[in-house]
Amino acid sequence: MFLLALLLQQSATPSVDTTLHSGRAGHTTVAPPRLTGEIVLDGKLDEPQWQVAARLGGFSQLLPVDGVAAADTTEIRVWYSTTALYIGVHAIDRSGTIRATLATRDQIFNDDNVQIYLSTFNDGRQATVFAVNPFGVQADGALNESGAVSCGYSNCAAVTRQQPNLSPDFVWNSKGIVTPDGYDVEIRIPFKSIRFQSGKVQTWGINILRVVQRTGQQETWTATRMGASSFLTQSGQLTGLTGIDAGHTLDLVPTVTTTDNAGPTGADGHWDSHAGRPQLGGDLAYGITPNLTLHATAHPDFSQVESDVTQFQFDPRQALFYPEKRPFFLDGIEQFDAPANLIYTRNIVQPIFAGKVTGKVGDNQIGALAAIDERGASAYGDNPVFGILRASHDLGPGSRVGVTWTEQHDGPETNRVLAADSRVVFGGINAVAVSGALAHDDADGIVHNAPLWAASYRRNGRNFRMNYSVSGIADSFVTRSGFVSQTGVANAQLSNSYTWLRPAGRLQSLTGEVVLGGFWRYDAFVHGGSILNRQLHFNLNSAFRGGWAAGLGYYHESFGYDSTIYTQYRIRQPDGSFTPFTGNQMRLPNNDYVFSANTPTWKHFDFGAFVLAGLDDENYKEWASGRIVIANLNMDIRPTDHLRLNVAYNDSRDYRPSDGSRVSLQDVIVGTLEYQISRAFQLRVIPQYSIDARDSLHDDSRTNLPLYIVGVDGVPVRAAAYDHRALQANFLFTYLPNPGTVIYVGYGSVSQRPDYFGAAQLGEVQRSLFVKLSYLFRMRG
């Protein structure tokens, strides 16, 4: 009792309110106490500070049905010192079915977990996200609400909010324990690890989301509604935060890496090893102010510890997108979130030096980046230079206006893109977004100036939703700092959906959606020309009590002949002459049937499946009718708290209706086996097997004559059958006590068919050994 009285006396808050702040009762403005003294992070909320901390409770269900009281009891405790924010989690679950594993960082979302959305700028637009599972294993990231939603292959009707980007990593501490009535977690977030507004007295937004895998429910502290254009504007507030001391934090991360790559060099089977010298590099991060950070890197290590998962092209007109994985570019990536992927840092191959400034000043978010790339990335033997600027200004909760500028120079070539965008939220559930860009590209004496534009309206009601959009990109639009999957196209889409909510039923929600879409060549759209592709989709999604989910869909589509795909195609006539391939410019019908299902996340297992069957579909390779099957299967197995296995299988195949022969087969199966020795130590094995096979092409359903494709030398080459296969195996040992301090030891092997010598069997073509050592030195000015 004496220690408790001493804490209260030393607190900057004259009196401590220990009543429960109930989110359901609307008591969402909280003044947590500032206390002194240290605590031991052991997962036990038994120190005196926790007894006088502010208490948050009265949670509501968000998914699958919002607006009802949460079935589970959750109490959050909050206090702070001059250097850190402390959050305690007391999650009650007497069922004895807590889902928890000793997962690796950011891989806890198959477990029960609690997510903290901390809006340190209190702007209703951005938040730093901290998540823990019952053992205190961490996930973290950032949410910068732009209205974008990620909803997989089929439809977006059942998705109501934007998910956080888990790429950023922060230095913070957490420890959890499973108790007889649930689990407890202690969290310490140093103020030097986060950005926040200037000012002696702080007000921060906060919301807490709890995920209960046993029931498949999500529960929030504030009475958050699905029918809203913003999740963050429904947060509560931490008020009266004073005496916060973040200092000027300086992080230094020196890095040393070494690689040894080996491969066959001749028909005698001899292998050569190419061991590089150890390379020194490093990163620097300096907190200029509590809300503005300078980052710099010199000779950074960008070796791929984990390879990109193989992707295949279903539409030959669209480029494949691979996400950024490199640590320097991931830090503060939310500040470079530009519409239409106008900022895509994987275009910077291997910078010799790069620097950036990220943060927020007043109502303005800023991200500025400059990089000098290696000579090997240049077509002229020079060092390509990149300059990127992204800035936005808050117009109110959920609303903003932004500008983007990118520039790249490579020898005599120059590329510039200037863009502007805006999103305005009104009425709580309505959002209008517009964007436009102009690209200037000067290459080989040829200059192109071309536009890109988009506009959308989204009504995110609790039951009835609308999503209307239109976009276009000119044929000659070129960006060398961004990613464009396809140019010369225009799209329009109208989506309407309705959700029936049944809190007491076994079927808890049912969403029906109708989507009408159109696709034009850009010039045809601008000049009032005919539509190329027509789409009419019907989708039905359901969520059942206990975490089961299922979906059905029917797609009725019609595809017009796109001559841009077949400019190099030729038909070889019986007399040996070649004529252009036109596919008779016929329009192809398309009728697809879709099924998806997801099991609950049980303690040791979960499974998800997506299958699309097209009985009348498009065979792009021969521009003829086809029958396609696309299947995506995903399974997680967790036999112990330490061991996890994920198996993902992606299959796509195309058949000719005329004779049932197979045109193409594309398969990828990836397994990820992880053994978590402790929170810091992990062993991981990732085998991947892929097949890319195609039959010889002919003018199917018309002349049936063979198809040829004109090569770079202008000579037509037979579009012959092939069967390419590859097997990759990656092994990795990781020691990761915190972001920045890491030891990686990795080994990889690649086998191909045909192999290095053209043999028609799998043969090893590459071996790689990789070692990385880095250490985080954190200093305060």
Protein topology:
Blueprint: H1 2-10, E1 20-22, E2 29-30, H2 48-52, E3 54-57, E4 60-63, E5 74-80, E6 84-92, E7 113-119, E8 126-132, E9 138-144, E10 173-179, E11 182-190, E12 201-212, E13 217-220, E14 236-242, E15 249-264, E16 271-275, E17 279-289, E18 292-298, H3 327-330, E19 351-361, E20 364-373, E21 385-396, E22 399-410, E23 413-426, E24 430-443, E25 446-460, E26 464-473, E27 489-501, E28 507-521, H4 522-526, E29 533-544, E30 549-559, E31 569-572, E32 578-580, E33 588-598, E34 605-619, E35 624-637, E36 643-655, E37 662-676, E38 681-694, E39 707-710, E40 716-718, E41 722-738, E42 741-753, E43 763-774, E44 777-780
Parallel strand pairs: 1-3, 2-14
Antiparallel strand pairs: 3-5, 4-13, 5-6, 6-11, 7-8, 7-12, 8-9, 10-11, 12-13, 12-14, 15-16, 15-17, 15-43, 15-44, 17-18, 18-19, 19-20, 20-21, 21-22, 22-23, 23-24, 24-25, 25-26, 26-27, 27-28, 28-29, 29-30, 30-33, 31-32, 31-39, 33-34, 34-35, 35-36, 36-37, 37-38, 38-41, 39-40, 41-42, 42-43
